[in-house]
Design goal:
The chain is an alpha+beta fold. It has helices at residues 2-13, 30-47, 58-70, 75-87, 99-107, 134-137, 154-164, 171-184, 239-244, 247-252, 272-280, 338-348, 408-413, 417-430; strands spanning 95-97, 109-112, 115-120, 123-129, 145-149, 152-153, 193-200, 203-210, 212-215, 220-224, 230-234, 259-263, 288-293, 301-302, 307-308, 313-315, 326-331, 353-356, 365-366, 370-371, 377-379, 381-387, 402-403. The protein folds into two domains: 1-98 and 216-453, 2-enoyl-CoA Hydratase, Chain A, domain 1 (Alpha-Beta Complex); 109-215, Roll (Pdz3 Domain), CATH 2.30.42. The longest helix has 18 residues, at 30-47. The radius of gyration is 22 Å and the shape is globular. It comes from Pelomonas margarita. This is S41 family peptidase. Residues 106-155 form the PDZ domain. Keywords: Signal.
């Protein structure tokens, strides 16, 4: 099992041999552009998890976009076009990062205004504000309605941005592209500010927000709720979190609680090994979670096939002292990848119920970033998942057992209807006593391996 966990960690985090980035101010020459483009073209064609490339005529798409990319007026436009090639697959995990975005990724930083927004009842509403951001400093709060963006009606701007967003796994995944453009600007943009008109409490006000690089600080916290139920929050499956506080330690003071809320909202994923460790905390014995699916049905390898970095079975450890109470998992449209694996596995095995809104639908696995000439990077999917008792999550998402719509009035009042619904559900589930996993031995037909489309 230790080898399996190491393998899963490698699937998520390993990169390939480094390629020297360009010096500051330098530009890609024609040969470097061609090499970067052709590396992406060949790697995806030969190693993508689905040998049918999701029904896309990959070579035709590459032939169409290659002349445009090589003739792009700027390097940023080149990287944007190269990413558009990977977007043809409609896969949130398969993308090209420009050197600028790659550098931020390595530094665990994001260029942002600090805003999370969503459309609610015909309005574009602020649903979250990042700590330390200019949006927080200027007093923006969840529940504020955005009336105008850069002088345009907010919904017109938002719908146009969504329409232009890169093709991805689901419409919910495309929200990320729109949010990135709102927060970081267009590709290659040097404009540091954005004008927003807001409405709250019947009052209109204008803000000029400034973009800034903020650290991506993952959060893991645990507490007892006033109801007496436990609460565990994970904003990402980041191995650094587990190094500081192992999951077993985080759950230690909650083991006597009659119910447990696992909050995976806005958790975009991370280490599959950490996700498996969390599952292990909830089962008294080894449980078959599902299968890892690769292009040829064989384990992924490195070192010219001499070293396996995955098995094909996904299982929990045995656990002598698991948490045995009722469990509810919170998800939303920002829950993706490893967080979807946890939610879907617990739901499919009958170990938990899910509350919130349908998740991203972005459950594939990458082996690591491949660095490209000039400092860019390629990410592409090499693993799919067939989970016990669950339909395929990629392209669908985890559908909650209890759906809770976004509500502007609740946001303005500082309420958390998702958590309220989870606590109410736990009260009913905890009264039934301990919950055991379903005695499944193989993935259900609905979770069959990826088929060519």
């Amino acid at each position: 099992m230790k080898k399996m966990l190491i393998a899963l960690l490698l699937v998520q985090l390993l990169g390939c041999a480094a390629v020297a980035p360009l010096p500051p101010g330098a530009t890609l020459d024609a040969a470097q552009r061609a090499e970067a483009f052709d590396t992406v073209r060949h790697r995806v064609r030969e190693q993508y998890v689905d040998p049918q490339l999701r029904g896309v005529d990959w070579d035709a798409s590459a032939a169409r976009l290659r002349p445009q990319a090589l003739a792009a007026a700027t390097d940023e436009q080149f990287w944007e076009l190269l990413d558009r090639l990977t977007a043809e697959l409609g896969d949130a995990h398969t993308q090209v990062l420009s050197p600028r975005r790659h550098a931020w990724w390595k530094a665990k930083q994001s260029l942002t205004l600090g805003l999370r927004v969503n459309e609610i009842a015909g309005e574009l509403v602020v649903t979250g504000v990042a700590p330390g951001s200019d949006a927080e400093r200027q007093g923006l709060k969840p529940g504020d309605a955005v009336q105008r963006i850069a002088g345009q009606p907010a919904l017109d701007w938002w719908h146009a941005t969504l329409a232009d967003a890169r093709k991805s796994s689901t419409p919910r995944a495309q929200l990320r592209s729109a949010a990135r453009r709102l927060n970081a600007g267009d590709a290659g943009s040097t404009e540091p500010t954005l004008a927003l008109d807001l409405e709250a409490g019947g009052q209109r006000r204008q803000h000029m927000l400034t973009r800034a690089l903020l650290p991506d600080r993952p959060v893991m916290s645990s507490q007892l709720l006033p109801s007496g139920h436990g609460y565990l929050r994970l904003s990402a499956f980041d191995p650094d979190l587990a190094k500081r506080t192992p999951l077993g330690v985080a759950l230690f003071d909650l083991r006597q609680a009659p119910g447990l809320v696992i909050d995976l909202r806005q958790n975009s994923g991370g280490s599959m090994a950490m996700a498996t460790t969390l599952l292990t905390e909830l089962f008294p014995r080894k449980v078959a979670v599902g299968k890892l699916l690769t292009r040829d049905g064989k384990p992924l390898t490195r070192l010219f096939g001499l070293f396996n970095v995955t098995g094909t079975e996904l299982m929990t450890h045995g656990n002598a002292a698991p948490y045995g109470g009722a469990v509810v998992v919170l998800v939303d449209e920002g829950s993706a990848s490893a967080s979807e694996l946890v939610a879907a596995a617990l739901q499919g095995l009958g170990r938990a119920q899910v509350v919130g809104r349908t998740s991203c639908g972005c459950l594939l696995g990458v082996q690591g970033l491949i660095e490209l000439p000039g400092g860019g990077a390629l990410s592409f999917s090499q693993v799919d998942f067939a989970l016990q008792g669950s339909p395929r999550i990629e392209g669908r998402g985890v559908v909650p057992d209890v759906a809770v719509p976004l509500d502007r009035a609740a946001l303005q009042a500082g309420r958390d209807p998702d958590l309220e619904a989870a606590v109410a559900l736990l009260g009913r589930l905890a009264a039934r006593g301990p919950v055991a996993a379903k005695p499944l031995s193989a993935p259900t037909p609905a979770a069959a391996p990826m088929q060519p489309r």
